[in-house]
Amino acid sequence: MGSKRHTETIDATARSMAIIDILVDAPQPMGVTAIASQTAMTKSTVYKHVTTLATLGYVDKVGNQYEPSVRFLDCARRVQWDNDLIDAAREQIDDLAEMANEVAGLVVERDGIAVDVYCADHHHSGAFPAYNTRYLHCSAAGKAILASLPVDRVQSIVSSPPALTEQTITDEAELQSELDRIRERGFSLERQEQFSSVNSVAVSIETASTTGAVYVSGQADELSGKRFEENIPGLLLSASRTLTSALE
Question: I need a labelling partner for 127 at 20 to 30 A (CA). Which of 5, 21, 102, 191 fits?
Fold first, then answer.
């Protein structure tokens, strides 16, 4: 994934943040060995970092495993981001979730990474993740965002994209063809490419300062057929137009 590069960085901080990212994305607590397997760090290095994070209150120890602490919820509430965007999106996305009877949300792109900024999950059964992965190439929202970015930016973001499921598109030529189809039809479809049990649909949104997408996600065996390929895209296209107009 693409990101801003700075000449002056602290490796220890980067390692701690990499561990936090892994723990935040994990569906359950992880042990030191499992964390180390996803990084270039040794188990002893991982142990020192998670112990430090636990001491600072950002990680909780559960037996011999670790998970993000509730402190991150407090951090999120204190962050003053683009409140105009979130305020404008909230009603639209809540209505979208109600009409689709599925999870709906807003994702924005920051430094080549997908960031969930609002999710209406009151129709969430708890049977699948009600969020998106950080990678743009494997989610409907992420692919909708990529399709709206300049080609050279896309190439820098999706260089050697990882496979999250058997359905994830990792071939760059195939991904570019997929993005061309998204540009033609105006919406993105994702069939179990980021989570094995989830299908999603998304439409991009662009403002003067933000590139993002609104999406609907649901169980793959329920969000399918005409509803998946025609009905939900129609709802999203309408929501995208209304939200874009509200932000202009």
Answer: 21
